[in-house]
Task: inverse folding
């Protein structure tokens, strides 16, 4: 905390932070986090241009920039109509998963408790597949179905894991169990449903950006826009939650309510992202961890997690499109191939028996 | 007979009766309901009627495979839980089944192997590697292989192997076609030749388990005590792990990955007959097939005319069990 003397000037501030003043408001900025955010943004911009250039046919970067700026170009169709919607979906999905992971990991104080490990994405997946097999395919209703599914799964896991308090390891174990059950429930509906729908749902279930466009991106973008004010609140609230319980309570933080709010935000974001692209595994686990290691902050940085998430998904999708070309891999396959070994590494270097700490 | 042995024997006999009932159900129930008397008739006297044909050509192989797979997975679960002293060790949870799947996919995709006899070896290698890797990951760090770390390592292993499998499968249409049919874990659509190819491996696995029974009992008391009792701990572990790998590999090669049978059955068996392995193993060997067969029958009648694969049914039935296990204090505190 910044301490102010009588004249109101800052005499001491945390190491590595700068104070930014806007009229009467002042807030702390972590200098390294700002630099990292800038670097990530540049990297993201490079990836964006690269994914728009590379594909079945190569488009030069100058043409891509012309299309992006809305100027007439011969590559309008390839870049603007075919590649851009998919890329936008990937960016939004990655950002949403990154933020969701950061929020849930902050509340659980456990890097393993990301939405994809504790069953939220599987809940959203099961709900969506169920809706699809019963003939609900409109892109405007499916996000709501996904949210309902994700929230129900979260509530279910929470209820099962609650026993005189919430033990983090029990939470994670129950989450794994519920994920498996929801996965087989999804398969159950796949066997029941129409063959064509089943085929469609199967692709969706691996987490694929193939054929995704503005239909899927719009609800996600709207959700992010609506959630922007709560997210700004979350960025502040995060700091209070990362204190230990006694200190936070002594400071007058309504801990339970803040935790509930942060978790709900995370679950909604993860569910909507799943609704758009299917369960792209491990992004929500990886992005906050990488972001935090880059910025070296005490809390998990929200903005950097979002940028990292977007970077992971777009890079993975670019690789998934090109590595085995002409065959395309679902992007979820690639993120799992990278994310799962990271999770194992996280487990292997755990020191306490209570599970890996962030 | 002393009192101490009477109870397990009675329960074991009850288990055998349950198994017989499950077998009868599996032979009689399906898209075509066949009366038990007709089932017996078809089995004992042959006959050329439609029902007799269905029973002998379709239901008998399916039932046999189900029984063998259930037996193998349940015994493998007992051995794994005994070796790791970990209540949630199980072929499915630890990623061993998924490892065996990857072995099979590699055999089909890269080595052109298309018979069960051929790819069962790949399944063994995959299962063994996955088991060692999951356990090594979980036992790293200072806490040792606690249940939560083992489950997480297994979940991570499952996700990783599944992504490799789908990577291979999506890039190779022919493999997809061949692989798809046992990918989900089902015992339907297999003919008698699968039974003939599986049983030698099953027998080998069971013999290995039989050798390790005294060692498993001693291991339950801790490594030091086991050593003090004169057991070669490392040998017990290696033989036991080999047995579990062979059993899991054979089961997966025959029916695809089926989770939770290896988790739930050993616990039920222990609750019924105590913790001595000479009683737990036979009890599990009787209950495992019953669970698979009953799940399979349920899968047949749930959404007629389509069938729900047995692995989906066991997962749905097994998860409440896992949750109950996790909610017990001892599991998490361990």
Result:
């Amino acid at each position: 905390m910044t301490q102010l003397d009588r004249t109101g000037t800052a005499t001491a501030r945390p190491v590595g932070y700068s104070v930014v003043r806007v009229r009467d408001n002042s807030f702390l900025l972590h200098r390294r986090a700002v630099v990292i955010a800038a670097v990530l943004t540049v990297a993201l911009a490079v990836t964006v241009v690269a994914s728009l250039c590379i594909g079945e046919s190569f488009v030069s970067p100058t043409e891509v920039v012309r299309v992006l700026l809305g100027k007439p170009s011969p590559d309008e169709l390839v870049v603007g109509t075919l590649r851009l919607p998919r890329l936008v979906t990937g960016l939004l999905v990655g950002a949403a998963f990154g933020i969701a992971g950061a929020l849930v990991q902050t509340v659980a104080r456990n890097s393993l408790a990301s939405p994809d490990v504790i069953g939220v994405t599987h809940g959203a997946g099961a709900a969506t597949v169920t809706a699809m097999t019963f003939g609900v395919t409109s892109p405007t209703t499916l996000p709501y179905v996904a949210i309902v599914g994700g929230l129900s799964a979260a509530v279910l896991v929470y209820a099962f894991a609650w026993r005189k308090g919430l033990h983090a390891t029990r939470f994670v174990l129950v989450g794994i169990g519920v994920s498996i059950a929801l996965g087989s429930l999804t398969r159950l509906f796949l066997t029941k449903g129409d063959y064509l729908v089943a085929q469609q749902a199967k692709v969706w279930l691996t987490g694929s950006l193939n054929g995704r466009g503005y239909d899927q991106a719009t609800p996600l973008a709207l959700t992010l826009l609506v959630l922007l004010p709560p997210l700004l609140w979350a960025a502040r609230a995060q700091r209070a939650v990362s204190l230990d319980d006694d200190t936070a309570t002594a400071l007058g933080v309504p801990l339970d309510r803040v935790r509930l709010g942060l978790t709900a935000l995370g679950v909604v974001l993860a569910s909507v992202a799943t609704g758009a692209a299917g369960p792209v595994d491990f992004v929500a686990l990886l992005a906050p961890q990488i972001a935090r290691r880059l910025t070296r902050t005490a809390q998990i940085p929200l903005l950097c997690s979002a940028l990292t998430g977007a970077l992971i998904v777009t890079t993975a999708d670019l690789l998934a499109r090109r590595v085995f070309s002409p065959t395309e891999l679902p992007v979820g396959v690639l993120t799992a191939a990278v994310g799962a070994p990271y999770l194992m590494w996280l487990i292997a270097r755990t020191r306490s028996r209570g599970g890996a700490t962030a | 007979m002393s009192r101490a042995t009477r109870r397990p024997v009675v329960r074991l006999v009850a288990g055998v009766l349950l198994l017989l009932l499950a077998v009868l159900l599996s032979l009689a129930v399906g898209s075509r309901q066949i009366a038990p008397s007709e089932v017996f008739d078809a089995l004992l006297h042959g006959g050329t009627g439609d029902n007799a044909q269905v029973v002998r050509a379709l239901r008998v192989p399916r039932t046999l495979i189900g029984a063998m797979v259930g037996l193998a997975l349940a015994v493998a679960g007992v051995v794994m839980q005994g070796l790791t002293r970990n209540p949630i060790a199980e072929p499915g949870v630890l990623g061993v089944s998924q490892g065996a799947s990857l072995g099979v996919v590699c055999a089909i995709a890269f080595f052109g192997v298309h018979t069960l006899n051929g790819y069962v070896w790949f399944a063994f290698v995959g299962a063994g590697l996955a088991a060692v890797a999951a356990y090594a990951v979980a036992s790293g760090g200072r806490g040792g292989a606690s249940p939560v770390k083992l489950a997480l390592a297994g979940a991570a292993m499952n996700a990783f192997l599944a992504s490799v499998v789908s990577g291979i499968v999506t890039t190779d249409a022919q493999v997809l076609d061949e692989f798809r049919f046992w990918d989900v874990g089902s015992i339907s659509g297999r003919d008698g030749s699968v039974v003939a190819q599986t049983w030698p491996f099953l027998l080998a696995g069971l013999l290995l388990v039989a050798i390790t029974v005294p060692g498993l009992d001693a291991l339950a008391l801790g490594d030091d005590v086991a050593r003090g009792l004169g057991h070669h701990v490392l040998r017990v572990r290696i033989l036991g792990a080999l047995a579990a790998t062979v059993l899991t590999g054979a089961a997966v090669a025959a029916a695809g990955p089926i989770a939770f049978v290896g988790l739930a059955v050993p616990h039920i068996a222990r609750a019924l007959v105590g913790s001595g392995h000479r009683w737990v193993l036979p009890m599990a060997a009787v209950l495992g097939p019953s669970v698979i067969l009953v799940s399979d029958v349920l899968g047949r009648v749930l959404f007629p005319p389509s069938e729900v694969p047995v692995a989906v049914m066991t997962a749905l039935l097994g998860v409440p069990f896992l949750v109950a296990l996790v909610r017990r204090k001892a599991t998490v505190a361990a």
